[in-house]
Amino acid sequence: MATKKSKGFIFTCCAFLLAIIAGGESLSLAENKRNCSYAVTIETTCTKGADTSNHVSLRFGDKKSNDIVVHHLDSKHVRKLDPLQPVVLDDVSRKPFQACNVDQFQVTGPCVDSQVCYLYLKLAGNDDWRPGFAQVRVLEGPRLSSNYFYFRRYLPRHVWHGHDVCDRELTPFGVQHKRKVFVKKPSTHF
């Protein structure tokens, strides 16, 4: 038969172990919540009428469902690059997505665990835009950076348009891609 002291000791030990386990879980959740920095490079082609003054949204991520969404790429975080040499020409706030320009945006979001393998752009507005290429560089882990995603056509408006090379499988009928469906996440704002 257990005495009152031994019951208290067992209870204290169990409470201590639960506190350690709970602390470890909150630590792992905090690690998952950390943010990373990305440099997103987008070229606008030199075709007449290729530039836009509309809002452009960006969505990219990895095959482990780390989805980063930027609802509005704006001039506050843009730098003009020389298309032939990736050297910064200026760091002045300016209008992005002009014809024959390469723009670089600084983006902060959840960290990816594997290489960035999909990128989508969405154009909102009335004028056309013809991007050339886009690339995402992960500043904390260059090996996780994306390859180039090529567009070279006018984007449709108000829909996500891009490339996904995450889940592809070689079959006797060619390369098959799984279709990515984006579900709107419930809002956490009260």
Question: What would you say about this model in short?
Answer:
With 190 residues, this protein is an alpha+beta fold.
Largest sheet: 6 strands, antiparallel
> How is the CATH topology named?
Lipoxygenase-1
Roughly what percent helix? 10-25%
CATH architecture: Sandwich
CATH homologous superfamily, by name?
A: PLAT/LH2 domain
User: What global shape is seen?
Assistant: elongated
Strand residue content: 25-35%
CATH class: Mainly Beta
What does this structure look like?
There is one protein chain. With 190 residues, the chain is an alpha+beta fold. It has one domain: Lipoxygenase-1, CATH 2.60.60.20. It contains one helix and twelve strands. The chain has one helix spanning 4-32; strands at 35-44, 55-61, 67-70, 78-81, 88-90, 102-110, 118-124, 131-138, 149-150, 161-164, 168-171, 174-177. The strands form three sheets. It has a six-stranded antiparallel sheet, with no helix packed on it. The longest helix has 29 residues, at 4-32. It is elongated and about 90 Å long. Residues 25-31 have low confidence and may be disordered.
